[in-house]
Amino acid sequence: MKVLIGLLLLFFGHDVSSVIHSVQVFSTASSGLSTFPEFVMVQMVDEVQVEYYDSNTQRIITKQDWVDQANRDKVPDYLEKATENRKGEQQVFKRNIGTLKQRFNQTGGAHIVQRMFGCELDDEDDTTDGYEQHGYDGEDFLSLDLKTLTWVAPVHQALTTKLRWDHDTARKQYLKNFYTKECVDWLKKYLSYGKSTLQRTERPRVSLLQRSPSSPVVCHATGFFPNRVVVFWRRDGQELQEQVDHGEVLPNHDGTFQVSVDLNLTAVPQEDWGKYECVVQLKGIEDISILLDPAHIRTNGGDKSLILAFILTGVAVVVVGAVVGVFLYWKRNDSDKRHKPLGSFDTSSENTEVQKPSPEAQPLTTGQS
After folding, report:
1. Do 36 and 114 meet the contact criterion of CB atoms below 8 Å apart?
2. Is residue 239 pLDDT above 60, yes or no?
3. Within this chain, do residues 284 and 308 fall inside the same structural domain, yes or no?
4. Are residue 171 and residue 295 in the same domain, yes or no?
5. How many other CB atoms are found less than 10 A from the CB of residue 335?
6. Are residues 56 and 187 located together in one domain of the fold?
7. What is d(CA 123, CA 317) in angstroms, rounded to the nearest whole number?
8. Would you tell me the crossing angle of helices 183-193 and 65-74 to the nearest 10 degrees?
9. Is the Cβ–Cβ distance between 187 and 180 less than 8 Å?
10. What is the pTM of this model?
11. By residue range, what is the domain housing residue 109?
12. Whole-angstrom Cα distance, residue 346 to residue 359?
């Protein structure tokens, strides 16, 4: 299992011409974790957090002013109504944890129920996609196949819910309409209101770092936006597939992103270093290239403050990720370059119009499981 941050962010290979816009809603309920809220809900637009709610504060915290405006224009008392719905969802999630503990024959211990749903829009050809995934203790539990409108149950404990949801024809049609139209309409609305934030471009700062002479050389890019960046090492103009270790794109505290790619030079004589370079590509700017030269590398000996800041930034990001979505698990087919997190999330049927983008959900079971 991984924390949310390591999972939330997308990597699109070397194709930086097309942008996939997205709305994602994550809900996580837990039991047996005294230092983590029993229920957390986070909404993201283009990987930017726009709303946060947890069971400790029992209120929605809006992270972007433009989201506040978009919601108010749709529903004047959005925050009040949506907050009441979130409180109801806490109770449904608590019930779902009890249901799953019973199905898995569990009693005590720490347990996590999760759900993620959302939609995507390709700005190049206007194609869309939608998804809904449920997870328990970091493993797949249920997922919606939008093409066939059936639920996929990878474990036998999910069959009861799968069969019940598969036979709910009205709800399946509702979900189809939501993921193919309604969610996309809300995404377009958010993109319109948040254009100055979501569609800006900030140039990355690129550094070469090395903790010790025997350590890999790290190409570290930070301060860039959006997060769809490509960073790779090449030798004599050819991209390296070996010797490299790609890190995950992580958020900075200021809303920008960072990423690092390690280059292992154990078997490379220093006189050949000049053949290597790190390349950073981001849509809207010229490629950035930095030659592997000892004079360009910052080390513990040369700049302790920078290396320490780099390490502490990574630690801080992981801590933030744990607070937002502890133990979120992502899994997609190898043919899909994007990763989706899993989760579990149910809403009451009241006031659903103020929870968009949010399809009306159902408990995992009715009565006994």
Report:
1. no
2. yes
3. yes
4. no
5. 5
6. yes
7. 29
8. 130
9. no
10. 0.73
11. 4-197+326-355
12. 9
Identify which of 157, 156, 162, 195 has the alpha carbon closest to the alpha carbon of residue 70: 195
Domain identity same for 103 and 236 = no
Express each pLDDT in 35-85 by its tens digit. 899 999 999 999 889 999 999 999 999 999 999 888 888 778 888 888 988
Asked whether residue 19 is assigned to any structural domain, the reply reads yes
pLDDT digit string (tens) for 328-337? 443 333 334 3
Distance, CA of 27 to CA of 110 (rounded, Å)? 17
| Contacts by residues 149-156 (CB-CB < 8 Å, ≥ 24 positions apart) | 149/173, 149/175, 149/176
- CATH classification of the domain holding 314: 2.60.40.10
According to the 3-state scheme, what is the secondary structure of the chain?
CCCHHHHHCCCCCCCCCCCEEEEEEEEEEEECCCCCCCEEEEEEECCEEEEEEECCCCCEEECCHHHHHHHHHHCCCHHHHHHHHHHHHHHHHHHHHHHHHHHCCCCCCCEEEEEEEEEEEECCCCCEEEEEEEEECCEEEEEEECCCCEEECCCHHHHHHHHHHHCCHHHHHHHHHHHHHHHHHHHHHHHHHCHHHHCCCECCEEEEEECCCCCCEEEEEEEEECCCEEEEEEECCEECCCCEEECCCEECCCCCEEEEEEECCCCCCHHHHHHEEEEEEECCCCCEEEECCHHHEEECCCCHHHHHHHHHHHHHHHHHHHHHHCCCCECCCCCCCCCCECECCCCCCCCHHHHCCCCCCCCCCCCCC
For the chain, what is the domain count? 2
Inside any domain, residue 367? no
Residue 250 lies in a domain: yes
pLDDT (tens digit, 9 = 90+) per residue, 158-191?
Answer: 999 999 999 999 999 999 999 999 999 989 999 9
Q: Are residues 276 and 298 in the same domain?
A: yes
Domain match, 283 and 349 both:
no
Tell how far CA 253 is from the center of its chain.
16
Is 363 domain-assigned?
no
Residues 38 and 133 both lie in one domain: yes
